[in-house]
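#struct-help
A.M.: can someone run this one for me? Single chain, 92 residues.
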Amino acid sequence: MDKKLFSDVCEMSKIAFSVEEESNMTVILDEMLAITGILKQFTGSYDDMADNNSVTLSDLREDTLSEPFPTEKLMQNTEAIDNYYVVPKLMD
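D.P.: on it. Structure tokens below:
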């Protein structure tokens, strides 16, 4: 990547680099552009029918009806406020 193009990209993206950072970034950007050049060689097409031909309908399990989970059990940790339910936070 030449310095003119790099400075234009930096100006458009409102990024400022020191002289040392600029030389490091041009090397990194050149490597990234080389990788994207390699990625253009791949087609990205996928034939799902060719991949799944080994699975037949008889290989699949039969759907069976089971009892639904009790609503009371599902709602035991909720708190009704106005027209919605508040549930406790499970993950951070």
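A.M.: thanks! The first strand starts at residue 79 and ends at 81.
D.P.: also worth noting: The chain has a mean pLDDT of 84.
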